[in-house]
Amino acid sequence: MENIDINIDKLELAAAKLRAISHPMRIAIIDLLSKGERLSVTEIFESLNIEQATASHHLNILKNKGVLCSKRDGKKIYYSLKSLTLTEIIECINRCND
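^ that's the sequence the OP posted. Answer follows.
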């Protein structure tokens, strides 16, 4: 049997990202941003019909785990996905439930 080299740091990072997206509202945010546009906090919470504080909380978690990136433009902060890979994972999970 071949010895498999496991990188624990990479596994921990992957697990942290999966935990970050494992909330329905965060999946909704990722889905919203998967269209390729960068959106402001206001656009996100209005689109999802949630409170601004709730949106900010979830956006902060996703940003801190490396799922989203943000850029300030004047008084507004715009969010976008760092990679579309997580949206592919979510789409795969959704196909498994069909």
